[in-house]
Each structure stands twice: as C-alpha cells, then as structure tokens.
Specification:
By secondary structure, the chain is an alpha/beta fold. It has 20 helices and 14 strands. Helices cover about 35% and strands about 10% of the residues. The chain is elongated, with a radius of gyration of 33 Å.
Amino acid sequence: MRFSPRATTACRRFLPLAVIVLIFILTSAPTASASAYNAHPKLVVVIIIDQFRGDYLERYRDQFGEGGFRLLLDHGANFTDCNYDYANTRTAPGHATLFSAAYSSGHGIVANEWWDSKKKKMVTSVEDDNTKLVGIADDKAGASPHNLLADTLGDELKLATQGKSRVFSVSLKDRAAILPGGFAADAAFWIDPKSGAWITSTYYRPNLPKWAQDFNAANRATKYWDRDWKNANGDLLRSTAHRKGKDGSDAGFYDVVGSTPFANEYELEFAKELVIYENLGAGQATDLLAISLSPNDILGHQVGPDSPEMSAMALALDRELADFFNFLGHQVGLANTWIALSADHGVSALPDAAKKLRIPAANLDAGKLETQINSALTAKFSPAIALRLPVRLLPGQPSPEVLIELTEAVNFYLRDPMVETPVEFFHSVLASMCGAGDGSLWLILEEDPALFLHRGVDDGFKLPGGFTSPSSDLSSTKFVETWFRRLLEQKAECVTCPWQQICQGYFKWPDPAYDCGGVKRLFSAIKAAADEMGLELARRDRADPSAELAKVGPGASP
C-alpha cells in the first residue's frame, strides 16, 4: 500500500490539506471471491470519516481488530492514489467533490462558508432562507443543497431507477449530511448542536419521520453526557461532563460530546434506526446511505494528527465500524452491500511537532493575519480611506458616530506598520503633541474662518456666534483669538479642556454648545500614540546613544 501526500511544503505546515482518498468496495462475505465490479447491490453505504488521513490505515493497521477497517483492507479494492487536487480541502467542498466527481469549479461549493455580496454577510454552504429547520423549535433559516451546481451519485441513482432508489445521508454537521445526499435525497439528517437532537429541513419534508421523533423523544443523547473516555490502558483522555462554553453559557452536545468516540457511536446508532425503519436494502432498486462521521475532525482540529487521543479515536472507531458492519450483515447481508470508505480532507502535522524535527514551521493567528492582509490591501488600494471621515461637518460639528470612526482611524493609521500613506491630519496633530510643528488645528487644517461667511437677510455677509460683517483687518488669526477668548469668557467647556491650546475653539465653531466628549477621546488616542512614540524613541536612544534622535514632522510615519 502506497501513500503519497502531494501537499506543498507551505500547505503541509499551515493548512489541513488532505490528498489521499481511500475507497474500498465489498460485495460479498469475506469468504466469497466474487468480483468487486460485477454485482447489483441492494444497498450502497458510503462512509466518510471527516479529516481521516490516508496514512492512518497503515499507521494503526496492526492495532485494528477484526471486522472493522480490516474487513475493508483485507477483502476490498484499495485505491491508494486517489487525491484531492485542489487547495480548498474543507468539509463542504470535500463532500461535494466525493459525491459529484467534480471540483469546486464544477460543483460550486468553494468553502464551508463565504461572503454573500447580496446579503452583505457570511453564509454557510447549505444555508437556505427559503427553508426552515424541522425537529426543533427554532426560527432560524433551514438548509438545502441549493448552492450545488452539479448533481450527485444519489441524484444519478434516482434518475437511473426512475425514483425507486431511496437515498439518505447522516452526519453531525448539516453540510456533511446535505451535500452527499444531493438534490433528490429522500432526507438528510444532522444534529442540533446544543441538544444533540436529530433534525432536518423543510426542503426534504415538513416533519421528522415517526421513528426519528421517537429516537429524539427517548433522549438517546443523554447517555453520552457525563462519561469518561479512556484509552486501552485506562488512562483518562476526555470527559463529557457538563461545562460552560467560551461565552459563559452551557456548552452543547456538539462541543462536548462531539470530540469523543461517543459521538460516532451515537451517529451510527441513529443510522441503524434509519436502515431498519426506512427499509433500506429491502426494495428492488439499489438504495444509498451516506454516513459522514464528524468526531475525528472535531478532535483533530484541537489536538492534531499525532496526539494519543487521535490514535485512541481511530481504534475506537474501528470497533464501532465492526459493530455497524455486523449489523448490516444481519439486516441486509454483506453479500448484498457495497461499502465505500473515504475522507473529505486530512490534516497536516502541527507546527510544534514539525519544529521538533527542525522543520521550519510557525503558528499563525488567523485574526492577526486577516488584519495584516486588510491593512496592506487598504494601504495599497485605498490609502485615503480616513480622508472620507470628515474632521468637521460643516456647518456643524462632527457627530458622535463620526468621532468613533475617527478614533478607530487613529489607531489604524498611527499604529499599523503596514500603512504606506499616512493621513496628514493625524500625523500633524501627532507631531504637535511630540513638540514639532504648530499646534493650532486652525493652521494644521488650513481652516480660514472667512470661508464660513454667509449671506444674511439684508444681503450682508455675516459670521455666526455674534460676529458682524468682518472688516478687512479681521484676519483669520485675529478671528481665532477673538473667538477663543469669548469661549473662555463664557466659561465654555474649553476652560477645563486639556486640549484647549491645540484646539483653540476649533470644534466649538460655530455652536459653542457643542459637546466635545468625543473630541476629547479622539485627542486622548492621538496623545497615547505620541507617548508610545516618545518611549520608543527614548528606548532606541538608550540602546544606541550615537543614533540621531528621530524627528517627527507632518507626514512622518511613527
């Protein structure tokens, strides 16, 4: 058996990229010698193990028992050179590819979720506002395969049998249940993440079938709570005890039980009920059941592929599959069943594991990376974004909303190292607070009060705030001095304002009653940046006394 991952070095280090697909087909009992390609099965069962790397089968082969993975390895057709020849190896694209035989360019599922330009928000690959969830009291939108652009194995089976074949799919995740089933599936079932109850969508049916209702009513999920997961040596690996989530609320079934083998057991338990009560494999046409097992992926994202927990997960799943195959043998007969095993994607080694082997690797903070990318793109293609945020709204003053935006822009433009083009206003004020340049906003912004003249009812030009038509000797500087003196005499907010010297009544024009609370916060943010710069310059000066002290001036980047 040969395994040849084709990931690039970068992808292997940083992305969970799967390139191995393993498919096994079993058409008869282990003692039979019938060809795997010459049969008319009553039931086709496709099992997808989420994030199950191709090399796991060889890595743990000597530890597998009889009847599980060994049943397929020893008696099936093993295709080891199958791979996903694309980069977006995620759950939704992988499942769509497996069942449509197309890549994202053909089936349209490019990721688990994406930005919807019409809705102006992120949407999932199966989210559908035209449907509702069935099985729980929830007003959230339902789900369907409406984003698929290609038909699937189940759709073709329905067409080939004039609709006589029955097609079902099951998973903990909605996308992993819906996409394998295709458009014509009789139903797809997934769980409510909070309670673990099995649900579906009005796309398939208005109500859960009675057997599924009974399954939920029996609270089958309850028995998987408050249990210890131990390995073969009795070592405690995880507990499904009730706990709080990151937001402080009670963590749900998916988050707590989902990362343990108990969730596989729960899912296969539901699949057995489906086979029995939907009479799969009992008709004249071939039926199809897709089962996507999610726990391997939930755990793998938390601990990586080389942890003891992943080994224990694979061995536990081996036992659970043996039990399920035994069930199929009694219910349908293995001679009448084709079983295919694959994965939607794999997972790369954790950077820490690679670094121990002296392989260059690093952990990337997705949030910080996103911020850096957006900053670089903004600086390159929209460097004047903050110039669209007015410093004042003529003939009034900035609204609280605008001041919030301005404060955010301060933090962005004064601290982000990716910015190439500084905004003159912020850097000029910063320079003033660092002791370089003139500190008056009127001069920094080149605001001339004469520009604010307006025509009165008598056709005379007037200035608001009690000023009459200006004479030729009322210069801009004189106006500012007079205006600021009046504000102080009127005991305006400026009297106690720590920024009065740099503002000089700028934001009080033309309405002295304007609340400068937001303005003060804006200047506090700029002053904080100036203080940080001063400390950094002092640190550098101490580290290299011969270095010339950096000068800060208008347009200089901190």
